[in-house]
Task: inverse folding
């Protein structure tokens, strides 16, 4: 036992060994953490669907006939059904009226708007960003961003032949919106998701897949 403690103390007292242990730890953490967080989010989604729709399932069938997973499967069917109903003009009109009510309530409208923007950004039909561009700055460099507006015909005060470019900030939420001449912007062949990941991680992230 004393020998084990002595060897452990020798490792701690040796800076080279500590650097090696630290390197191994962070390498292992970098490998495990993305998998663990992904698994947690997927598991949370499955549990949420199962919990929310469990009562609906047992309302139609006896509790003893219920099997784990039925609630989650019903949640998938429910989401698909809502997606199908959104093609109906009547359903879209009702949905639009309901969302207008939400956007008039303080605090709730901010939360709802943020969630809508995030969903639209990654999977919506009307994505806020369609074009990835590089904006030339005065110092000679370029900044990666997204065109959020192609013209200002309804805002003549902004000038002609100008575009709005959103520049996200690295490692935090938020960003800047630049109004620049179209000549200072050039499009790059890059997916919005990859460009956003590149910006948020300060260029550290590599394309997935």
Result:
């Amino acid at each position: 036992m004393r020998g084990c403690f002595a060897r452990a103390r020798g490792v701690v007292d040796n800076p080279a060994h500590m650097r090696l242990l630290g390197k191994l730890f962070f390498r292992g953490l970098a490998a495990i953490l993305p998998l663990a967080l992904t698994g947690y989010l997927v598991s949370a989604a499955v549990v949420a669907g199962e919990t929310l729709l469990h009562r609906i399932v047992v309302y139609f069938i006896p509790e003893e006939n219920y099997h784990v997973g039925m609630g989650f499967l019903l949640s998938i069917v429910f989401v698909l059904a809502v997606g199908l109903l959104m093609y109906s003009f009547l359903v879209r009109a009702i949905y639009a009226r309901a969302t207008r009510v939400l956007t008039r309530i303080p605090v709730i409208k901010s939360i709802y708007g943020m969630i809508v923007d995030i969903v639209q950004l990654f999977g919506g039909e009307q994505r806020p960003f369609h074009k990835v561009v590089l904006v030339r700055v005065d110092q000679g460099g370029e900044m990666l961003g997204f065109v959020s507006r192609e013209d200002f015909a309804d805002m003549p005060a902004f000038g002609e032949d100008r575009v709005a470019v959103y520049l996200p900030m690295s490692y935090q939420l938020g960003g800047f919106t630049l109004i620049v001449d179209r000549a200072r912007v050039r499009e790059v062949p890059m997916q919005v998701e990859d460009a956003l990941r590149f910006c948020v991680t300060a260029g550290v992230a590599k394309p997935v897949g």
